[in-house]
Amino acid sequence: MPRYKPVSYEQNIMVPISLEAQIVPGTLEFAIHHLIESRVDLSVFGAKIKNDETGRLAYNPKILLKIVLFAYSRGIISSRKIEKACKENIIFIALSGWSEPDHTTIANFVSSMKEEITFLFRNILLICNEMDLLSGTTFSLDGCKLSSNASKEWSGTKADLHKKKEKIERTVKFLMERHIKTDNEDSPIKINEDEKKEEQIERLKAKAKKIEEWLSENEGKIGKRGGEIQSNITDNESARMKTSHGVIQGYNGQALVDSKNQIIVHAEAFGSGQDYSHLSPMIDGAKENVKAIGFGDDYFEGKTFISDSNYHSEDNLKRCSDEKLNAYIPDVNFRKRDPRFKTADRHKPEKEKKYTKEEFQHDKERDIYIYMSKQERT
Hints:
Layout: H1 19-22, H2 28-39, H3 43-46, H4 61-73, H5 79-88, H6 90-95, H7 103-111, H8 116-130, E1 138-147, E2 155-156, H9 158-181, H10 188-217, E3 221-222, E4 228-229, E5 231-232, E6 239-243, E7 246-258, E8 263-270, H11 279-292, E9 304-306, H12 314-322, E10 326-328, H13 334-337, E11 360-363, E12 368-371, H14 374-377
Parallel strand pairs: 1-9, 9-10
Antiparallel strand pairs: 1-7, 2-5, 3-4, 6-7, 7-8, 11-12
């Protein structure tokens, strides 16, 4: 009979852990910890806290900023998941000093950073420049679609939303009429079904009320061409956008990057899926950022600017010319002219051939259909 090593779940084990030793030099968490502790001015965050004499103690903004930045670098954007990480992950525990902030504190801190985020970003950009991480010679612009916390089902023009509200109200009316007709039955199963119907009716009523309140308080969203575009009841700054994974309700995140060490000199999220409309505001934002760290208005003159064909437009080329940028922006038809792409089609999978009834002959003896070539058919 096999013998096994004894295991006891009743035993107590004391494991000494040095939080400082978990933040190893050369890692991203060490860089975040070092920058926030010794280089970044966070006094702007403390101005909001009014507990000098009374009130409970607040979490240090340094701690919250460290764990939020590290969480984002790991693809964790949910405040509840960040809270869980601060209780289970040793790196998060070390960065937070084992303070275990809850998800409400983390969410409130992130949502209140709208005014401070620009100051913080420029502060870090200044440190990057002092460390000679910026080349200031070549810049690249690109974007990606980011989902918002709003459902695309709540999107539409005012007319669309009116129709959606009327459709919900008709459904409520139908359910209530059917509910009244069968209300005399008292079986346990029927009572349970009635409860479910009542819950469904209440949910639909709440949806209709939500749309009605929004329509009464908001005007239609106007696009750049002057016509009405789709609004969203939950997050009206977001928009429906086409992606490689289908249509999402979200934002178009843009980043202008210095080529030397891939340092972002400006980043912004737009509620429009068309990239070409974001080139000018991205250049404006980058100019404001570099000006804030001590450079002049001519910082981008003579520099190289690179972007893909999504940014190609006559207005954008003129803007780059006005800024004296050496812009490399291909137009949408550049592949057709470039000889290097002449053989590109041979790498594409062949389209599946669609057959017609006339291409087959019925063999009655075997009861099968036999394909006939064009010559055989003629």
